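INTERNAL TRANSFER SHEET
From: sequence group
To: structure group
Subject: N-alpha-acetyltransferase 35, NatC auxiliary subunit

Please process the attached sequence and return the structure record in the designated field. Keep the field labels unchanged so the import script can parse them.
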Amino acid sequence: MQSVREEESSSIDQEPRSCGDNSVWAHVSPLLSAACSDLNECELIHGDNFNLFAAMSALEIMDPKMDSGMVSTFYSIDEAIESGFAPVPISSDRTVDVQCIIDIMDHLLACEATWHMGHSLAQTVFSCIYVLRPERTSSHALLHSFCRVIRATCRALVSVVSDARTNEEEDLFTMTYGLPFNGDEDGKGLLLLNAVEETICRQLRACKATSSKRRVFEARRKANDFVFVVCRMMQNWNLYKLIRNWKRAFAKLCYAGYVFHFLHALNCMRRPQGRGLELARKHIAYCIAELESVLSSVEFLSLETVENGKNEMEESTTGSGRHPIGFDPNLNKRLSAPTPPRAIKLLSWKKVGTSKFSAIDYYVKLLHNLDQICAFKLEPDLDAVLQFVVQFQKSRPDLVARAHLQLLLVQDGKLYGRDTFLTICARSLALDVTKNHGLHLNEYILQLNQLMINLLKILCANTPWQRRKLGKILNDWSIFNVQMGITVGHMMQQVTTPRTPKNGDKSALILNHIYGWLEEQIHWVALRFLVLGFDLKLYSPSEYCMVYWYMYIILWKLAEKAHFRVLIIVHTEEQKAKKKEDYSRDMAREDRISLWVLLLKCQTSLAQGLTVMIAALRNEGMCLKSQGPFNTENEKFVQHFGLLQKASLPKYDAYESFSESTCHARLDYLPVYECFRDAQKMAKEIKVGYANDPDKLAEVVGLEQVAEHNIIAVNLLCQDRCLKVSFEFIHHPHFATAVVRRS
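Return from structure group:
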């Protein structure tokens, strides 16, 4: 088969040439040109076995967007270097040299932020020749150390995401395309960058101490030319007063301090068992302060007016608005084969005008998300872990933050790398398993350990993948629950026999309690699956009735199982207190779980009230039914909840039960008021318990407002059936508020 490559006509050998492996390369451009002249529009040359499926995967030869072999500005990195595309030094003029270096660093961080968003590493960060060949910049300490630290940062991030496997199938984040990516010498960049930072600090302090133009020019002989260039760049000596300390001046000059501490923060967060989180927070705090200083220096960085005005500034990847030197996004596009190179639009340096998102915005959000992870108290409490992960996901963290969270939670098959999930589960039930060493080797405990690991990993995925994976693992949990229930049932029957050893009694009782706890976790996963549908906007208003009915069923069962766990804990604590007079009960844990149960009951009442309310509106013709030209209500029910029904949640015919329970609902039906009033009453009690938890308090206040407004809406609708009603998520993201309007 002949290979095709479009090259410069002057460099093409017209004669066939051998490659040494019995293959012959021939120039086929004349043949293709002749064929094109005979082809009409929408026609193509194909073999006998070519079909429509193959056409979907075909590449158009000599199309720059499809053919990665097309020669762009430069054929290779060496050719670009020889042509002077990335000179070192950049300019003989110190002022221009400093300006260009700042632009390069601005653009590099914009490329890195774009790479984090899922684009190709070869067409973003490694589109910079200075990063591809950092040894060329060894004579320039700042640029050399900066490029090395950028390479080390990219390697650290790829390692984190690869280990966590939070990237999706179509994500290009972990693909390095054979780039010069590895190398221990890049770690020296931190030492070099630290030395550069100290040098600049000394020079800026000397510059600050100079109080007149004359003394500044005299300091030029003693200080590095780099600092003197800064004074020249300002041109207006009044701006000199804006530089109050070396930190702000350093932030205005470059991002060197930011990348230095960012890489340190990443390394600290990878330390086992969360030992480096406190130190990582310090580095993250410095990074945030550095970015804030950079944002305040926009006028300083934009010394020259952009010729095309504001519109070009909005699309610029540098603070000055100038185009950086040494970047070619098509330089490595051949490395992305067999896929065609993507058209990449880099994030702008700063949010200006109509731009929606910028590189600075991304880094600020990323740093705050990493700070949230570092601030999390590593308590061996599964309830606290699940609550933190759910709350963390509300900010829609990106891939890098989610990968760090997963690696923190799951290490060596243990929570935080310290506690087995048997220990965590037993602690949730106030049980002591230290003397039951055989339980750690129990096959059901080992399976439960793996299920919990998979659950935590799934909860760290992005929202669409999280919901899809949760729906699939529900079946695994259900099968495991059935198998464990049969075994535990037999064990509990044997406990009643007098020949059963005492240790066997304890193991059976512990497994029995864990079996009940397992059912609670299954319903928690099912509830998470349902509420994520609201976040992804998968439900239409005509389907809210069936959704809230299903939420009511799951919430009611979840509250029942959680309440049963409270009873187990209270009973266990009382038994321990009887055996040891000096034993102190963990009242805080009991109160926390009891408050959680009350919150579940509040949500249960709200879901029940919304179900009856929407069903009554449908029955009285005031709200659209879930009917369409293609799907019946039963088919939509199966589409939304088929995975739950497969996992036997609930264990009876769900759609039949839903139809029977909603077909006779009316607005004047008394339970509609009672459900909302019960929810409102419980919300007021819960607010007292969550007074010190701002996130939970805000959620409870939202539930209370939903109940209050829905009571008013029901009253208005009972008085005037001609009013129009719609459901909007004003006060809570998952529980709708009825909005009543006149026709």
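Handover comment: The mean pLDDT is 80. DSSP finds 27 helices and six strands in the chain.
Transfer complete.
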